[in-house]
Amino acid sequence: MWLLRPPETGCFDKDQRRAVEVLFDAVLPGGPRRPGAADADAAEYIDRLLAMGPETHPEIPSWRLAYPVLLAALDTAAQQAHGGRGVAELDRAEATALLLDLAAGTLPDWPTAALAQPAAFALLRAHCIEGCFGDPRWGGNREAVIWRWYGYLTPAEPFTRPTTATPFTRPTTATADRPGEDS
After folding, report:
1. What value, to the nearest 5°, has the Cα angle with vertex 89 and ends 87 and 91?
2. Of 118, 130, 111, which Cα lies nearest the Cα of 20?
3. What are the Cα distances from residue 176, in Å, to 50, 54, 153, 181?
4. CB 38 within 8 A of CB 30
5. What is the pLDDT of residue 68?
6. Contacts 24+ apart (CB under 8 A), 60-65
7. Quick one: which of 137, 126, 136, 182 has its CA closest to 159?
8. pTM of the prediction?
9. 26, 93, 101, 133: which has the highest count of C-beta atoms within 10 A?
10. CB distance 52 to 60 below 8 Å
């Protein structure tokens, strides 16, 4: 039987981790009555996954090479578009606009060493979704917050974002209405 052995440390440095958190929050934003990527700590999933080896997933070595180039290219694009502010300093609307341009392949001065822009967006989006909806043992979907909100494996539980929480703090309470309701 194969057992998941999470790495002791992640793959990203502090700035890369923060950039991934901002980007993932733009991919799957939460609201007052629905959890999102920040609530699920989806960035923890990819940070842990990239620290594992190819025995876990054969594409990890290529992803491990792709992410630093991708994040640096997005940081440069953000700085050009937002007066020197990098990805980690963008608000959700700005990060969303950056990702829309990435998906459309319209970011200027994209490095040739990076994945093609639409493929880069697809990679970020896929890893965000995996980090939100996957098994919590892999590092994302913290405390099964999205599973519980959807009612997966158990009856659905309400969710309400605490008013004191910021998008990247760990909420301590969760109460609200049924899945599918707007924020």
Report:
1. 90
2. 130
3. 34, 40, 19, 10
4. yes
5. 96
6. 63/123, 64/11
7. 182
8. 0.82
9. 26
10. yes
Which amino acid, one-letter code, is at 177? Answer: D
- CA dist 152 and 150 (Å) reads 6
Mean pLDDT, 10 residues at a time, the chain of 183 residues? 68 96 97 95 95 92 96 97 97 98 96 92 97 91 90 79 66 47 46
Crossing angle, helix 60-81 and helix 14-27, to 10 degrees? 80
Which amino acid appears at position 18 of this protein?
Answer: R
Phi and psi at 112, nearest 5°, equal: -70, -25
Is residue 17 a contact partner of residue 10, using CB atoms and an 8 Å limit?
A: yes
What is the chain's Cα-based Rg?
17
Cα separation values, 174 from 12, 76, 93, 111, 156, Å: 29, 37, 25, 42, 12
